[in-house]
Design goal:
Layout lengths: L11 H12 L1 H11 L2 E7 L5 E7 L5 E4 L7 E6 H8 L5 H6 L4 E4 L1 H4 L2 H12 L2
Helix pairs in contact: 1-2, 1-6
InterPro entries: SCP2_sterol-bd_dom, SCP2_sterol-bd_dom_sf
Protein name: Putative SCP-2 sterol transfer family protein
Organism: [Torrubiella] hemipterigena
């Protein structure tokens, strides 16, 4: 089932991440072991609308719409910036330092996200 939204082009990356997580039980277990948190994303599109998704790497190992149950860390950024981040064209640290990425919650857990995005890039050819 797709979690992407037509109004948010970057949300296709969440389907790619889900595809990697669902590709094998080992893949899912490794991601949960690496992540150990619930990552929420609030994305703002060009029309000024916002929507949220969550990546549960604490229990279920899947992406779903909404903020999820008590996210460990929430990342707030634009649709374009998330697209670039998911494709490896942007660096989360640089986005954060320039104010384009806002992080609420456990900032150290946010650093666990990069290897998972890299795996999605490689497998899904984002």
């Amino acid at each position: 089932m797709s979690v992407a939204s037509d109004k948010f082009p970057a949300s296709a990356a969440f389907d790619a991440i889900n595809a990697v997580l669902n590709s094998s039980e080992d893949e899912r277990k490794n991601a949960i072991k690496q992540g150990g948190a619930i990552f929420a994303f609030t994305i703002k599109n060009k029309a000024g609308e916002t929507a949220s998704w969550n990546l549960d790497l604490k229990n279920a190992g899947k992406v779903s719409q909404g903020l999820g149950d008590k996210p460990t860390v929430t990342l707030v950024l634009s649709d374009d910036d998330f697209t670039n981040l998911a494709q490896g064209k942007a660096n989360a640290q640089k986005l954060f330092m320039s104010g384009k990425l806002k992080i609420k919650g456990d900032i150290m857990k946010a650093t666990k996200l990069e290897p998972i995005l890299k795996k999605a890039q490689t497998k899904a050819k984002l």
